[in-house]
Amino acid sequence: MISHITLGTRDLARARTFYDPMLQLLGWHLSFEAEDWLGWTPQDAESPLLSITLPEDGAPAAPGNGVMVALDAPSQSAVRKAHQIGLTKGGSDAGAPGLRPQYHANFYGGYLRDPDGNKLCICCQRAIAS
Question: Peptide bond preceding 48: is omega within 30 degrees of 0, i.e. cis?
Fold first, then answer.
């Protein structure tokens, strides 16, 4: 259903430092790398692709208002770990990990912004204890 998601960055090296350890924890690997973009895919699939790129028009990257990328985590523990990795790699908190029963009874998520201001959600929606 989803082929790829692309987010802009102003600094590709900084974006790699932020995304790579967090995505590795969630089971993704860096599968594409070029001068102006990076791309991660799940370990066991070719898609979806999450790409981080310098904008083609040469203007500075800016986050979209109302845009958020949600990344699935295998457990609540993985949500907490990924959120913490994001914070230690230059991200900022946009909502601490926790249950969000207003979405549904099993929704456990943490929110952060990458160093360029793009909003991310790391979430687990399974009824599991962790």
Answer: yes
- Is residue 29 within 8 Å of residue 41, measured between CB atoms? yes
φ/ψ of 75, rounded to 5, equals -160, 165
Nearest to 5 by CA among 40, 34, 29, 35: 40
pTM equals 0.90
Identify the DSSP state of 89.
T
**CATH superfamily, domain at 4-54+66-124:** 2,3-Dihydroxybiphenyl 1,2-Dioxygenase, domain 1 (3.10.180.10)
State the Cα–Cα distance between residues 62 and 94, nearest whole angstrom.
17
Model confidence pLDDT, tens digit, residues 40-96: 999 999 899 999 999 989 999 999 888 999 999 999 999 999 999 999 999 999 999
